[in-house]
């Protein structure tokens, strides 16, 4: 399987830290994970506010990226900003399942969008590509009805046309992580001026927690940009 960014997006200077973790037990009950989530929530409340959030350097970069695509970031929040706002409003992070919770922790901690995809639901495909959507192309977002996309949106899609993600904020119902997920594709979504080290730090934390808390094993990881793709093989 190959993961790459389409050449038509070269002007946007996008990048992705990509990892594959296999053999996960996503049905464990980990008190350690609960503590990690609580600590991240406490840190957000101590160091951020609703008023100051829009001036945060990373949050501002992703907001500006949305404006460049013609998307209003005050109506469709970047994924990490939405999670941080949830904490600041007193709701805390949603508790979905251990793997999703780990992804949310990293997204909040490093202020970057994180996408998680069940590889067994993706199945055997030749490639996954980050590309522009076509007008009228259909996408089934998590927890919502199908929606029509426009060409100003960017999607992560398989070679057979299934859309996994609207970049960089919404994952698909088709490949969502559930309690039976054992093998996962992790995408940390980067844009221009977001340092690759930040993306890799978020990815590395997810991988480490998957190994220590969920008994997973990292199969491969790497940086994907306009000059570099990632290839891996997995039995599904």
From TrEMBL:
<protein>
    <submittedName>
        <fullName>B3/4 domain protein</fullName>
    </submittedName>
</protein>
<dbReference type="Pfam" id="PF03483">
    <property type="entry name" value="B3_4"/>
</dbReference>
<dbReference type="InterPro" id="IPR005146">
    <property type="entry name" value="B3/B4_tRNA-bd"/>
</dbReference>
<dbReference type="GO" id="GO:0004826">
    <property type="term" value="F:phenylalanine-tRNA ligase activity"/>
</dbReference>
<dbReference type="InterPro" id="IPR020825">
    <property type="entry name" value="Phe-tRNA_synthase-like_B3/B4"/>
</dbReference>
<feature type="domain" description="B3/B4 tRNA-binding">
    <location>
        <begin position="61"/>
        <end position="215"/>
    </location>
</feature>
<dbReference type="GO" id="GO:0003723">
    <property type="term" value="F:RNA binding"/>
</dbReference>
């Amino acid at each position: 399987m190959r993961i790459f960014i389409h050449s038509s997006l070269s002007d946007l200077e996008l990048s992705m830290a990509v990892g594959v973790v296999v053999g996960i037990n996503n049905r464990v009950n980990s008190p350690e994970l609960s503590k990690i989530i609580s600590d991240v929530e406490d840190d957000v409340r101590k160091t951020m506010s609703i008023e100051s959030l829009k001036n945060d350097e990373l949050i501002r970069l992703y907001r500006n990226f949305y404006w460049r695509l013609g998307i209003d970031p005050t109506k469709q929040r970047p994924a990490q900003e939405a999670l941080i706002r949830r904490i600041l409003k007193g709701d805390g992070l949603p508790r979905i399942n251990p793997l999703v919770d780990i992804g949310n922790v990293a997204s909040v901690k490093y202020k970057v969008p994180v996408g998680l995809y069940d590889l067994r639901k993706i199945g055997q495909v030749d490639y996954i590509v980050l590309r522009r959507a076509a007008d009228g192309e259909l996408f089934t977002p998590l927890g919502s009805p199908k929606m029509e996309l426009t060409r100003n949106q960017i999607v992560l899609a398989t070679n057979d046309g299934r859309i996994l993600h609207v970049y960089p904020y919404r994952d698909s119902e088709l490949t969502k992580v559930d309690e039976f997920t054992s093998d996962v594709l992790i995408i940390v979504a980067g844009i221009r001026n977001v340092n690759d080290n930040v993306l890799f730090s978020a990815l590395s934390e997810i991988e480490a927690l998957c190994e220590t808390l969920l008994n997973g094993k990292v199969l491969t990881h790497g940086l994907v940009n306009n000059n570099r793709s990632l290839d891996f093989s997995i039995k599904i």
